[in-house]
User: What shape does this take?
Amino acid sequence: MQSKKLDFWKRLYFSMTDFRIYPFIIKEKFSKAFFYFLKLMLILGAIISIFVTQKVLQIVPSILNVYYDEMPEFTITDGTMIASDKVSKKINKNFSLIVDADNPFSTINYTLKFNEDILSENNIIINSDKASLVRKTSDGFVSLSDISYENIPDTNKSQIGENVKEVINSYQNRIVFWVITTFILFISLSAGSFFNMVFFLFSALIINTIFVNKIKFADYIKVILYSNSLASILQVITMIYLGNVSESISFILVMITTVYLFYAFRAIKIDALISSGKGNTPEERIQNALDNAQKELERKIEAQMEEIEKKAKDDQILERAELNKKLIEKKEALDQAQKEYDEILKKINKKDIFEENSNEDKK
Assistant: This one.
């Protein structure tokens, strides 16, 4: 396995299914593990954001119905609300609505005490200068958020309702809401993971005392970032289907990452032993023997091919030499024939001369 050729999705898959990736991870730059972690958190944040956006778009119409049915007619002028009536009603088991436009936000404690019988876990309080969300706790009431009317242009009940409808019906606004929610969830998930990393780092140091791997501090962080992949995905799935992550589920997720850390450091140790030639399993020895046999066979085939090529070259040289020899023999034979021809020609010439001289002498 060569980690350099693994893209993000393969890294994600192997970090959860194949512990052999971890010895390669610690040999890479820290930036690769860090960007892998950020990309995973961004993707998970985007996935949760889709469900959050969908949930909000489903809830807003119900809230608008409650708004039109339960809110009295009102106007906001110069940062002050004037309502036609007071309201003190429990909407459901989780929410209550209190409209007291005759009193400012500073008297909220009096308002809460006066309406104590109808208060729920979450309470929307509408005063003359502010609207607030108040949660009931074991220690009393806590204001989670409040909105001042000072920066709100003059408006009324109907106009606010129409503005909300226009906002949720705009696809552009939905996309903007999804992007903002994705960014918020990305920050939240990343911060939560970094917070848990302190515990996982402590666990990793203890686990590695068992295997005695000689690795750097940055290698611990790289292993943790990859080992936490499955737990992060399960956390997102839990948030989507259950809405939150209970303490028992959080404990299970921590244990999952701890188990992954154990097997990750175990894989790193096995890789170190194999690299040093120790601790090979029978399967690995068989595989090594097969690999060696394959290499030896390839070496023999290559040697035979070289020998064949060499022999072919030698045969070609011998064939040329034999041909040259024959050519030389033929040339020598031709030279010999030419020589004999020349001698015969000389003899013929001498005989002719002798006969000519004899004839002259007879005359």
